[in-house]
Amino acid sequence: MQSKFIKMKLLKILEFPDPRLRTKAKPVEKVTNVHKELIDNMIHTMYESKGIGLAATQVDFHERILVIDISEERDDPQVFINPEVEILNKDEKSGYEEGCLSVPGFYEEIIRPEKIKVTYLDRDGKKQTLMPEGLLAVVIQHEMDHLEGILMVDYISNIKRQRIKQKLQKSAKEKIAS
After folding, report:
1. What distance in Å separates the CA atoms of residue 58 and residue 25, rounded to the nearest whole number?
2. What's the pLDDT at 74?
3. 73 is a catalytic site residue
4. So what's the pLDDT on residue 177?
5. Pseudo-torsion of CA 173, 15, 134, 157, nearest 10°?
6. Nearest Cα to Cα of residue 77 among 119, 120, 122
7. pTM of the predicted structure, to 2 decimals
8. Contact 142/57 with Cβ under 8 angstroms?
């Protein structure tokens, strides 16, 4: 499917170990046209990168904005501005094989709460509440981590994290050399 965001700008996604990924995002004071343009560009970038979620931090914009689309058709983007998550059942957790656009090519099973409640502003700045479970709950939590400066590699061993870091640094050097 061709993205309906075809006229949008493709944003550069920061890759681990870029220190900007560790920046804690600030709340959006007021949703403006600048935010809406960023959101459209983030959705376009997410689709073009074959991702199912993208946090503003990943594109070096450090305000609390997430875009997610887990639909099969890739035509139902959801926007979360200033999301706040409440875990509904701390004992009910499940593992999902997670990947990350900022850690390309690596996948790890990460255990997260299965059910959450998220309160947020939508693209138009209207307050919304959602009680997702399963994959959507996992993706929201993964992207929320980015807003806190946390990456999926923070959930794995130091040895694995170092290997991933070295492989990504080597790959980046090879891209520059070619």
Report:
1. 10
2. 93
3. no
4. 85
5. 70
6. 122
7. 0.92
8. no
Give the Å distances, CA to CA, from 133 to 52, 88, 100.
16, 10, 20
- Kindly state the helix (H) or strand (E) to which residue 136 belongs, with its residue range: helix 135-147
Q: In angstroms, how far is CA 53 from the centroid of its own chain?
A: 5
Nearest alpha carbon to residue 53 among 118, 128, 126, 125: 118
| Residue 136 pLDDT greater than 50, yes or no | yes
Residue-wise pLDDT tens digits, 93-129 = 999 999 999 999 999 999 999 999 999 999 999 999 9
Closest CA to 101 of 21, 7, 39, 4: 21
By three-state DSSP, how is residue 160 classified? helix
Q: Which of 108, 143, 148, 174 is catalytic?
A: 143
From the list 83, 4, 79, 84, the residue with the least C-alpha distance to 38 is 79
State the residue for tokens 């459209």.
Answer: 40
